[in-house]
Design goal:
The protein is an alpha+beta fold and about 300 residues long. The protein has 6 helices and 11 strands. The chain folds into 2 domains: about 140 residues; about 100 residues, Ribonucleotide Reductase Protein R1, domain 1 (Orthogonal Bundle).
Length: about 300
Amino acid sequence: MTDRQRGFALLIVLWTVGFLALLGTQIIAAGRSDTQLADNLKQEAVLEAAADGAVQNVTFQVLAAKDPHFQGFGAVSEMRIGKTPLLVRVENESDRVNLNTASAVLLRSLIVELGSAPGLADRLAAAILDWRTPGANSRPNGAKASDYRAAGRNYGPPGTPFQSVGELEDVLGMTPDLFARIAPHLTVLTDGDPDMSTRDPVVARALTDVAGVADASEAPQQTADSLLRITVTAIGHGAARYSLVAVVSGAFQSTSPRVNILLRERGTSLTTGAVAKLNVRSEDMIEQDGAPSNIAYYARL
């Protein structure tokens, strides 16, 4: 074999070795990526299961056991399901304004309380009523199909009750900013309007304006909380979070006790705002790769 042939053979060998090394690197990287994906999916499943467990636990504690620990409506509490720490907030759904039963006057007052000009509040309140009521003719300041077409929308009011609070985003005149401010005070799941004992201060002021009452704080407090909005944030490794919002009712006095889930959706994490350290003991910390993690769990309350 000539020197030229030996050089060519060596070149082929080096090229093959380089190719195999590159291929091996890609296989290892792909394996690591698949392993990380599997770990992430496993952790999400664990956090979701813990969040669901927290909803069931809180529902029983509040509606069946009447545990005073969960009677601080609106406050954030800590709890644990298995090895997963969670933040839980319990609210009474009846504290919110029902989009399908509220009068134009109450809706206007609520919108004004959230910082909108009275003129805009008049138009939006009328448009909301036109959205949920049948007929082709709009009320004063309202909006029906012709008004939506004139505004360049390819849809119009269905003339039926709101199916969700999110549907309000499609009402003519509603802006993303105002929707973000008003949505936490609305519901479609109750049987009627809140009363003066609502724990929602914005709704209380709107009701006070409508009723002409000087001080709503003197009204008697609600004692029955049969429809709960439960917001849960499950805390995982590092920055992993799973947030869940559920609106539930419970029937524990019947022969077949049950929990009815009226709404279940991924929610906004409770971990926003000022930082507060969760009470996570070292022996309870979530294990990672078979060893206790040294992650300190923090919640932004």
